[in-house]
């Protein structure tokens, strides 16, 4: 299990936990006291991250794509999600 | 700050409270009202309520095991419920905290797309309410109200169920050290010294006024604050039997369920 957390100065906390299967994300959970609107987006985001490679480019594509849609993250920036996943990978 | 005018027939809202329920029913009532407002079956509503037994509510995205000292809650008979709204874990002391919900039709001109702006609009009602006690409070983004930099109110918003819902707390006389014990952050993440620091970051009405204040007085002050800020008249009312019925169903089928509370 890989996990990490990131408290955004002046913002909220993002925590991530996942397993790795053949260098790809499996069973990811993103949690914390941030706001995501609409809220059900969290399950969709986790679904899209599942099975992906854990490198900056792949994560950037997924996260930027996701937040180019209707979703709004409050208390952190979309790139903070990438940061915390990469932190967990290193840990 | 509020330039939008309401439709003439749109400025009479329903006021419900103060009700006392358990955690699961409180969250179920918020959802039931939101669903009937989206169907335009009931007027916009401001609700005040307390929690018996005392309870912890966690943000929609929070992990229950990471945030809550479940063993201690169990021992102290403190309920734990997941909210529909994001944000952090809150300790709702039966005798020390008043919760409000504003549940509003998405067509209402107060409801802008801008989420931060909506926080500020609703919170300005609370701030004006606190002014009735000669307390100068201010909105601190993202979602807090503070007095001299110390938090007195936390707020959270959602637009689920096709209506606008913002609920939040006003600390009246909370047992702040108990609050930081049931929330795990105090137990495992920070030392005693840090708990003390965390305690110093929050305040409550009793502390600020140096005397006790009744829930009824707080309720009346906040009611006036909302009326004046939003330019509305609040008519005392209660849940319809349909809302009551739906709330009971939601309590049983959603908020009491492990699959909901332990989903993260």
Mean of residue pLDDT values of chain A: 95
Fourth-level CATH superfamily of chain B: Bira Bifunctional Protein, Domain 2
Write the CATH fold name of chain B: BirA Bifunctional Protein, domain 2
Q: What is the succession of H and E elements of chain A? A: EEEEHHEH
What is the CATH domain class of chain B? Alpha Beta
- Sheet-strand content of chain B, in percent, reads 25-35%
Q: Which percent band covers the strand fraction of chain A?
A: 25-35%
Cα end-to-end separation of chain A: 10 Å
Poorly predicted sequence stretches spanning 5 or more consecutive residues of chain A: none
What would CATH call the homologous superfamily of chain A? CO dehydrogenase flavoprotein, C-terminal domain
Low-confidence stretches of chain B: 1-8
- What is the gyration radius of chain B calculated from CA atoms? 18 Å
Q: Give the overall average pLDDT of chain B.
A: 91
How many domains of chain B, as an integer?
Answer: 1
Measured as a percent range, the helix fraction of chain A is 25-40%
Biggest sheet of chain B: strands side by side, in what order?
A: 7-8-9-10-6-2-1-11
Overall number of strands of chain B = 11
Task: Please estimate the helix content of chain B.
Answer: 25-40%
Corresponding CATH architecture of chain A: 2-Layer Sandwich
Description:
The complex is a heterodimer of chains A (91) and B (264). By secondary structure, chain A is α+β, with helices and mostly antiparallel strands. Chain A has one domain (2-90): CO dehydrogenase flavoprotein, C-terminal domain (Enolase-like, domain 1, 2-Layer Sandwich). Helices cover 37% and strands 33% of the residues of chain A. Chain A has three helices and five strands, in the order E-E-E-E-H-H-E-H. In chain A, strands 1-2-3 form a three-stranded antiparallel sheet. In chain A, strands 4-5 form a two-stranded antiparallel ribbon. In chain A, helix 2 (56-67) runs antiparallel to helix 3 (78-90). The longest helix of chain A has 13 residues, at 78-90. Chain A is globular. Chain A starts with a strand and ends with a helix. The model of chain A has no long low-confidence stretch (mean pLDDT 95). With 264 residues, chain B is an alpha/beta fold. Chain B has one domain (13-261): BirA Bifunctional Protein, domain 2. Chain B is built from eleven helices and eleven strands. Chain B has helices at residues 23-38, 64-67, 70-76, 115-131, 176-182, 184-189, 192-199, 205-209, 215-230, 241-255, 258-261, and strands at residues 12-21, 45-51, 55-58, 79-82, 90-92, 97-105, 138-140, 144-147, 150-158, 163-171, 233-236. In chain B, the strands form two sheets. An eight-stranded mixed sheet of chain B has the order 7-8-9-10-6-2-1-11, with helices on both faces. Chain B has a three-stranded mixed sheet with strand order 4-3-5, with helices on both faces. In chain B, strand 8 (144-147) and strand 9 (150-158) form a beta hairpin. The longest helix of chain B has 17 residues, at 115-131. The chains are: A alpha+beta (91), B alpha/beta (264).
């Amino acid at each position: 299990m890989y996990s990490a957390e990131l408290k955004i100065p002046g913002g909220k906390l993002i925590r991530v936990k996942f397993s790795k299967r053949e260098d790809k994300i499996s069973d990811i959970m993103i949690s914390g006291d941030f706001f995501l609107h609409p809220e059900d987006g969290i399950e969709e985001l986790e679904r899209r991250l599942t099975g992906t490679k854990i490198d900056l480019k792949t994560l950037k594509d997924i996260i930027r794509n996701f937040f180019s849609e209707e979703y709004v993250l409050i208390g952190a920036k979309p790139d903070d999600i990438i940061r915390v996943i990469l932190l967990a990978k290193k840990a | 700050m509020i330039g939008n005018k309401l439709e003439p027939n749109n400025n009479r809202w329903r006021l419900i409270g103060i009700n006392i329920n358990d955690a699961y029913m409180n969250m179920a009532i918020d959802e039931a009202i939101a669903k009937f407002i989206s169907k335009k079956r009931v007027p916009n509503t401001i609700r005040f309520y307390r929690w018996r037994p005392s309870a912890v509510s966690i943000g929609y995205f929070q992990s229950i095991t990471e945030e809550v000292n479940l063993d201690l809650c169990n021992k102290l008979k403190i309920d734990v419920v997941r909210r529909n709204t994001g944000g952090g874990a809150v300790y709702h002391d039966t005798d020390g905290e008043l919760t409000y919900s504003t549940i509003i039709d998405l067509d209402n001109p107060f409801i802008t797309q801008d989420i931060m702006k909506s926080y500020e609009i609703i919170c300005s009602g609370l701030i004006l309410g606190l002014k009735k006690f000669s307390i100068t409070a201010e909105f601190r983004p993202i979602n807090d109200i503070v007095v001299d930099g110390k938090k007195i109110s936390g707020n959270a918003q959602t637009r689920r169920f096709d209506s606008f819902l913002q609920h939040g707390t006003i600390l009246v006389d909370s047992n702040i050290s108990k609050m930081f014990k049931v929330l795990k952050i105090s137990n495992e993440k920070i030392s005693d010294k840090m708990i003390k620091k965390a305690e110093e970051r929050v305040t409550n009405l009793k502390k600020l006024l140096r005397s006790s204040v009744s829930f009824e007085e707080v309720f009346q002050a906040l009611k006036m604050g909302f009326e004046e800020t939003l330019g509305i008249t609040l008519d005392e009312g209660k849940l319809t039997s349909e809302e009551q019925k739906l709330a009971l169903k939601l309590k049983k089928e959603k908020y009491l369920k492990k699959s909901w509370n332990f989903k993260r």
